[in-house]
Amino acid sequence: WRYCGSELFWFLSSFTVFSAMAVAMGGYFRPHYFIFILPAVALLAGLPFLFLSGIMANRGRIMQYGLPVALLIVFIGASLYNQRHFLWESTPEAVVRETYWPNPFVESLAVGNYLRTHAKKNDRLMVFGSEPQLYFYSGLKSASGYIYMYPLMENQPFARTMQRELIKEVELAKPQYLVMVNISYSWLRRRTSNPLIFNWLPGYLKKYKRVGMVEIYQNQSRYSWLPTVVWPPSSPYWIEIMRRKSDR
To answer: Which residues cross the membrane (predicted)?
Structure first.
């Protein structure tokens, strides 16, 4: 209070409180939600240097400003050094893979590019999994309003109804392309999840032909496309790209 003044004190206090409220608003605390509070934390991290500058005010300008700046440079330098692998030594793709594996964020670019290259402008796409980025990367519209599978897997009274709606929308839209995501994080299926969609899928997939396969491994992924699509996959994590048979 003595060194930062009442206005700054109240600003930082209220900013921190409201940032924390933004993080907690939905009652879920997933790691990326804490991005909301990072600006407040960054400002709070500067307070010790402000206090140090105030303490050194009577010891000359070099000590008042030079010491806090020198310490700040040391701390920033140490932080950058500790993160050198992510910041300079590794590629963006490798960083994403190390951080989020086995989520198919890197692989989505290749799948989206394949779909964009081979699909027609008005073709529809259905992604069975919670990977909405594929619609953006491919430029194709979804065959259903359900672009996340999570609500359909929850133990809630509308799950079966939602699955029926998805099935109806897909059967009416007859999407030219399907993407099957065999990654547990893309479904979050529980023992109590309604099995309707999984009972329906095998029969519906007979209308489609496999045109691509992505096998996801921890250090790299293996891609195969027509005419040499790998099946069955050797990795437990994979993405299957399918195209509707012309006569179906």
So the answer is: 7-27, 33-55, 62-81
